[in-house]
Amino acid sequence: MNRPHRSARHGQPPLAVVRGRRADAPLTLQPGQPTRDPGPERPGPGAESGRPARAPAGGAAGPLELLAERTDDLQRLKAEYDNYRKRVRRDRLAVREIAVANVLRGLLPVLDAVDRMREEEPLHGGLRAVAESLDAQLGALGLEGFAVAGDPFDPACHEAVGRVVPGTPDRPVCTAVLRRGYRVGRQLLRPAQVLVGEGAHQGQGSGPS
Predict the structure, then answer these.
(1) pTM listed for this prediction
(2) What are the residue ranges of helices labelled H in the chain?
(3) Tens place of pLDDT per residue across the chain (209 aa)
(4) DSSP string, 73-112
(5) Domain boundaries defined on the chain
(6) For labelling alongside 174, which of 15, 30, 146, 186 has CA 20 to 30 A away?
(7) Which CATH class is domain 143-209?
């Protein structure tokens, strides 16, 4: 005759043997649970076809979506950096042009003095060499002088200080240049002071009226 289990005497359920999922897992005794082998694990969805299971809708993005997002970020960052480089280069050129223009504007009285000396008599010796070197160096910086007798009068770059004939000519021209004008590229440093008259009066300049 089999003797009842000690735990059954006191109204407790009998102990059940529970095996873990792994074959080498130890056996455990838990009250009230039947002894059952869970068997092998079932493969998840997509395991039979060899394809990875897709992420659920609304979940984390897949590798391709993440790659496309990072690529867009890099392209946008590169475009912003290219625009920044262009803007910095443009600002540097603008600052350089302003600095050069300020230096050249300060040298215009020196050029006016050289022009007056040339009008009085031809330059010789060391004075001529200095004047030619000065013209060459300033020309290399982009300084350009303009206005000669016979040029059409342009109020944008010519300053009329007198008229040769009274009235307003139909086609005014610069009959005489009292002071040359200078520009650097498209920037006007100083307008030229001229006498205005008809084309037939070229070379008959008189003093300012």
Answers:
(1) 0.55
(2) 6-9, 63-120, 125-140
(3) 445 445 444 555 555 555 555 555 555 555 554 545 555 555 555 445 555 555 545 455 688 888 989 999 999 999 999 999 999 999 998 898 899 999 999 999 999 999 999 888 888 888 899 999 999 999 999 999 999 988 999 999 999 998 877 666 678 899 999 999 999 988 999 999 999 987 654 444 444 43
(4) HHHHHHHHHHHHHHHHHHHHHHHHHHHHHHHHHHHHHHHH
(5) 64-141, 143-209
(6) 186
(7) mainly beta
Reading the block at residue 41, the tokens are 């694990």
For residues 32 and 144, give the distance between their C-alpha atoms in angstroms, rounded to a whole number: 107
Cα(104)–Cα(136) distance, integer angstroms: 13
Residue with tokens 């540097």: 92
Angle of CA points 12, 13, 15, to nearest 5°: 115
Contact 178, 158 (CB under 8 A): no
